[in-house]
Amino acid sequence: MEVKHHALPGLIEFVPRVFADERGVFFESFSARLMEQAGAVANWVQDNQSRSKKGVLRGLHFQRPPHAQAKMVRVAQGRALDVVVDLRRDSPTYGQHAKVELSTEKSNVLFVPAGFAHGFVALEDDTLFLYKCSDYYAPAAEGGLHWNDPDLGIDWGIESPLVSGKDEELPGIRGFESPF
Ligand SMILES: Cc1cn([C@H]2C[C@H](O)[C@@H](COP(=O)(O)OP(=O)(O)O[C@H]3O[C@@H](C)C(=O)[C@@H](O)[C@H]3O)O2)c(=O)[nH]c1=O
């Protein structure tokens, strides 16, 4: 498994070794041992799955402490541009974002530590997005930032994504008091 440490501290991408034969392909999408060795340590308690049409944008989401979630995200079908924003107040990269394309072709997996806002845009129809979370869904602890906030300055590479009403109401980062 190849390990890539991204510029935002703690953001780690894994690229598994893919075994192909006449039946198809096989790869380990998760290995606690290998991933923990690289620093992706979390107590995974919930797996989520969403399917999205091309152009659907979900995010930018987080859960506030004590229900903050680390996430281990990947795409099992299709392609997505994954975007994370560092909201850890003590981090040298606070407010900065990173983008990683996730796809079945690459079979890559991204570890997003707690303290980040997370979102993605589906780049293909029927994009199947799978992720592990280190805490249970806690609706009262949900928070987020607006995907198109000019202060975040994220180029999603898409003009008019399909966004939920809830996500369109999220605030920008200006005046935001990070709970992390
Ligand atoms: C996130 C979540 C939602 N739900 C329910 C609530 C709601 O009725 C329905 C859809 O929820 P949402 O609109 O929040 O789904 P979605 O916009 O896909 O939310 C997800 O977005 C990505 C970017 C993340 O990072 C995730 O943590 C999560 O916030 O599913 C659960 O039951 N459990 C969960 O863990």
UniProtKB/TrEMBL annotation:
What is the E.C. number?
A: 5.1.3.13
The enzyme class is isomerase
Point out the coiled-coil segments of this chain. none
Which parts of the chain span the membrane according to its record? none
Q: Which pathway does it serve?
A: Carbohydrate biosynthesis; dTDP-L-rhamnose biosynthesis
Going by the entry's taxonomy, the superkingdom of the source organism is recorded as: Bacteria
**Reactions catalysed according to its record:** dTDP-4-dehydro-6-deoxy-alpha-D-glucose = dTDP-4-dehydro-beta-L-rhamnose
The family line of this record is: Belongs to the dTDP-4-dehydrorhamnose 3,5-epimerase family.
According to the record's subunit comment, the protein's assembly and interactions are: Homodimer.
What is the name attached to this protein's record?
dTDP-4-dehydrorhamnose 3,5-epimerase
Organism for this UniProt entry: Hymenobacter saemangeumensis
Provide the taxonomic classification. Bacteria, Pseudomonadati, Bacteroidota, Cytophagia, Cytophagales
